[in-house]
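Hey, resending since the last one bounced:
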Amino acid sequence: MSNYQVPVKLYMSAPVLSVRPDASLEEAYDVMVEGRISSLPVLDQERLLVGLISRTDLLRIGRQESGSRPESDLLTLPDRTVSDEMTRDVLTVSPEMTLEVAAGLMVKHRVHRVVVTEDGKALGLLSTRDLMRAIDEKGTNLPLSECMSSPVFTIRAEEPLGMAVERLEKARVSGLVVVEDEWPVGVFTQPEALEARYLPRATAVGDVMSPRILTLASRTRLHRAAAQAATTGVRRVVVQDGERLVGILSGLDFAQAVK
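The structure tokens again:
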């Protein structure tokens, strides 16, 4: 039996942080920040799942609403409710589904979190961070060179925020590695973009990037990387061979390993 043929309920996070359909987009963003999560189930008065709102949604909406001039705010969240913008066709899993199958669904649909439901009610969330914990506990011994994604999407520290947000959207990734003199010095991800939404689009990425970066050698074992990432709260691992940037592990790469 595979190490990951265990039920989702053993690794899901509960209770569920959620938001009401009539909440504003700003309220949804505040809950995401407070819970340090990338998406929120939308529950009606009976606590039934009716949708999902994510940071990806907020970035897309904010970019559509903002101006294109260098002095324009990076993002503008309009005065709309969650129900106006949420995804209604939500990917869900049962508490008895195996981690292996759930991880496969994450990879297939390119999502970092699925809602665990029973009889239409949200019981918990299974995220790529939960999968990191499983990888650590199961001791998966693959080298990072066999699990990483390549090439790495990067941006120079002096480039403008407007360019960084456009690159996030066009590349369909949730984060960029920020480089200075070809060396990784930080990351620019969706949380940094939303936090900087009132800054001018021309602001340098290096001024708002997160310096929290985990860099490991390509020969490092996957369970070691998962343990360090989970402990430090880092969502992506930069992989290097000596001074050469060769790959990156995001949440979906960890999900691929479980799949």
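Residues 7 and 98 are 4 Å apart (CA to CA).

Sorry for the duplicate.
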